[in-house]
Fold these 3 entries.
Entry 1:
Amino acid sequence: MNFMRNGLQWKVLTGLVILTVVTVGSQLWNTSLYRTSVARYTVLGEVQQLETTGEALLGRGQHYVNNAARDFESYARDVALFKRELIGDVARFDDTLKSLQLSIAAHDAIADDALVDGIARLDGAWADYRSGLHEQLGPDENEPRLEWGARFVSNNQPAINAQVHALVERFQAATDSDSRKASASGIGSVLVSLIVTAVALLWFFFGVTQRIRATVTGCQRVASGDFGYQMPVGTKDELGQLAIAFNSLSSRTRLVLSLLDHLQRRSNLATSFVELARESAPYIPTDWLALIEVSDSGNDGTVRYGVSSTPKTALLNERVSLLGLFAQRDFAKASTTHLPDLRRHTVEHGESRLARELARLGYQSALLVPLNTSNEWRGLLVFAHQSPGAFVEDQVKLMSSLAPMLANGLARNARVQEAEPALLES
């Protein structure tokens, strides 16, 4: 799970998901605002049509009041024309009002309480208006009281038109507000997308491109001979793992080449051990490192040289038992061994004095490197650390590979070692 949280692929996927969510969310929000705006414009058109019909109805009534028929022939003409047009206007107003009510019911997003109440009041006023107009025209359809009806329209239609006009203004204001919201939302969506894209580009430049460039620089420095060069690791994603692997490779290369260079030069055992301790420290952090000269039996040995993180190197010049350290009882066949938990090892192998002494001194893990040669000299390198499981598989493999080279070089230099054992402190 840590890899998933820190992995470069996971970060890229997270960025893409965020960008997708922002884009899709903005699109859905804008679509919702657009649909609401379209619905408002549709309803606004119906309300404006209602206003137009009301104004036409008022104009028709006022015109007839000013030009009422004065003889039977004119009256008969008005019955045929004016009444039909008047009833037609009333029917159109009625149909438009019903259509407006259906539109409001179908679009909940635009049906706020004020608008619903306004339409309800208009519907009630219009019902009273129609009833009064019918009463003024009279029950006889062939001889309606046109002048009475026209006066009723002239006197009562302005109130109806005023309510319609108020609805038009309210819908117009709401429609304009939706348009402004849609415009602001569109601009906001573009800005958010630009910000997310800019952040992604900056992260890619500083989090990926720059780190790749640093890796290339590191490779060039090592290629030019700067062995041991260490790159900053930073995060634990794939590039961080690449930096860790590069640093490990650089440290191992420096260690191997430095040891090869030193062992090719004739020196004494003390100097060779000092060089080994100095060169291995960056790659194998150790709290206690010792070189034990193994006896002919292979069961014990003497701690000849040591370097420690404490002021005094423990066990120096002491004879220690090597029993119980390796899976093979024959030291000549022993291989590099990692003891991740010294305390547990001492419980399982009570005969191992060295492991017991190291555990008593506070060390919790150890790396044992047997140095076997065809000559009489044999040795054992012991790396100890105060933390359990301090040594990783790559370190075990490297020291196992270097063991034959170290054994031959140290065996050669052991012939010219000083008479007295040396105390080395760090």
Note: The first strand starts at residue 288 and ends at 294.
Entry 2:
Amino acid sequence: MSIKINYSNKSSGDLSSNTVLFSDEKFNTSNLRKYLSGSELSYINEILKTSDIKKNLYVFEVSSKKKIILISIKKDLKTSDTENLGAELYGRINFGKNCEYNIVSDSITGKHDNFLGHFLHGLKLKSYEFKKYKTKKETRILSINVLGNKNKPSIQNQLKFKALEEGTFYARDLVSEPGNILHPDEYAKRIKHLQKDGLKINIYDEKKLKKLGMHALLGVGQGSIRGSYLVTMEWNGAKNNSKPLAFVGKGVCFDTGGYSLKPAKFMEDMTYDMAGSATVVGLMKNLALRKAKINAVGVVGLVENMVSGNAQRPGDIVRSYSGKTIEILNTDAEGRLVLADALTFTEKKFKPKFIVDLATLTGAIIVCLGSEYAGLFSNDDKLSKQIFSSGEKVEEKVWRMPLHKNYDKLMNSKNADVQNINYVGGAGSTTAAQFLQRFIVNKTPWAHLDIAGMAFSKYGGALNSGGATGFGVRLLNKLVEDYYE
């Protein structure tokens, strides 16, 4: 889908094609006389009189060639509500090969912070499609003419929204790629290309990782013919040498479960087991594109968890980058092994202000929270509140779950410092987070987001049409924007 947006200061003139107008929450049309003919206005008012007005958006087919879309704006509208309205408009468009809509910005009622910018942002987020591997290509163009000299987003805001859309779409693209295409070797190459956006990229291959002692990460990938990598992305946008904000992502490009083999049903979905890393990559791209005034680092561990004669076995013991030993009781609890090394490395090398990690870590979080909230685990109340608030604002919601020293006994190993699963059962997401916390060795403020229920949607959501969601890019961008810039 290609969307072209044109801005014009004229709010009247040729409104013969499909037209989008705005009214107050009671659908008062008195301010629309200048944009509609008398017959059109009478027709709309007659329909509204006989309607049980509960919706936010109504479509009136005034002729075979013209629709008028009337959207109500509530007084207490949040920015996420505004974005949802834009997405709802996109969902009501009947596409031919090309279609054109006029949005009359001067009809926007009330005072709302950058209403039109958020409205168009929601529309564009909803428009995402992944059809790269469709043989028959459909070229669809949506032309939007924004008419009027009021409410136009500033150039700076337009650039911010564009950067956020590009970062989100990049994350969605990565998650949508099949495992035979986006294996760790290819993934590392794609991240390398982000140098053109101003990011400093370092790729640590297996030889370097062995030298560093990252045997927890390497153990996960040793059964694959593909390489294993740790990739760092640095953005230095602050004028001083302030500590960076750190974001760490799990990048298991395909997860068979290893010798603790997953069931065949739905294993094809395990291409999105790298969604945490995709969020980090998309976020860093966004921060670079919008020239964020902060220092930030993104770190992703890229592996493929396969079955082979060289694959890791249940019962193996590995030494992590931190020096702590880990007993592998289940090879399908692999993401936490990747993150264990990545977290300690990030903390020691970059000495960040905080660390936020993201991972499709446990099925247990889906049992607990479904596809409405990501699980939030943290050692820091301030950071937790900031993430929660940011998630509420962009409707990428999180719910804080408990961490407690009493859970440690479920992860203590008789043969090593820690084991990678809780064999007693229960609290699967919490014990996984408790495991990760052991690898934050210098008490850096840290939060873990378990996004297993949020990274991919078979049915679609408010701002996506199904498939990869890019969850976390907008949430963490809002965190940066509101609290650290």
Note: The CA atoms of residues 1 and 127 lie 7 Å apart.
Entry 3:
Amino acid sequence: MSIFIDLLSNKALNVGIFGLGYVGIPLAQRISGVGLKVTGFDIVSERVAELNAGASPIKHISNESIAEMRAAGFEATTDFSRAAECDALIICVPTPLNEYREPDLSFVVSTMEQIAAYLRPNQLLSLESTTWPGTTEEILLPFVEKAGLTVGTDFYLVYSPEREDPGNPNFTTRTIPKVVGGHTAACLEAGRALYAAFIDRVVPVSSTKAAEMVKLLENIHRSVNIGLVNEMKIVADRMGLNIFEVIDAAATKPFGFTPYYPGPGIGGHCIPIDPFYLTWKAREFGLHTHFIELAGEINAGMPQYVVDKTIAALNDRAKSLKGANVLVLGIAYKRDVDDMRESPSVMVMEILRDWGANVAYCDPNVPVFPKMREHNFDLASVELTAENLQAQDAVLLLTDHTTFDYELIARESDLLVDTRGKFPLSLDNLVRA
């Protein structure tokens, strides 16, 4: 370990980051900012070229910050053989679900296959991608052992779950505490030393499995509570109550209550995914996570609930959804970002399209509908104007970007379906969904 620690202490350590997306780029920025050499790896050549040109592929990360990172020595590459140059290898690749809602670790496995020949003594390997407890030992460890390395002696293996919240101005990579679990005590010591070099607070846990479970618990906690409040929204709506008023009043209690807010579903890289990772792994132990799965079912059903409310509202106006012009406002999964991963807005758009609606969208953060693994729309964002709003049979607010002109939307929409509680119930043209 002394060689690894010496390199770290002398800021001579070269850190390789695999996966240059919403997690990898901020991590590279932070590590580069403390004076360590950073090499970024990605299989998408266009993204590598963009970063090397000093341009940011992500809205909330500025071109200027990428240029600063380049000036500090950051380089992106598609050449995975350069992993041999790196002393620390940090994997931040996607871990989605497959068509059967089961864990898909193909990106992790592919990364390990590409770097396996370049593993060497005195390296540290850290997995940050969300996964099920046991992945580090069951998937990564065999690659290391096959390379003839002894984990804990001449090689260090850790798991440290990413905790990025894209677009959140209150928390940065540096200030978000970092959980680290090591395969051995020596691995944990090396992992703590690495992350302490650029993270304010490192939280050690007893094993890689414990660290993997931490990540799942964090996001399942959110999934369950969002599922609860989404179900409460449906009940409150049937009773003629404003769920947002109820939540805000409940939030005045100074203890024992944390406010969660309903919406058209859940999105992002963690909350829609993590529960399925745990339920899949739990079955190996003969367990069924009924409570977690029920929350997932409720959240997954919210896009259909939004469409059903839209159908009913159009019906009240003697209109059919088939052939109707429907404008979706906001297709990123959360406010003021361009992140489309698992966005419930896309699910709503697909259901609307299946019903025969003419679907358009407006999202200043997503000017052109991106290529996605499971979804395809040949659309570009339309301008938010009085004319465009007046041309719609229904306008659906799905993601409440702060740049939207809400007064214009309220005034010019014939039918306004609000999933975020942005508009007063006194509006004659409003339906809450």
Note: The two ends are 57 Å apart (CA to CA).
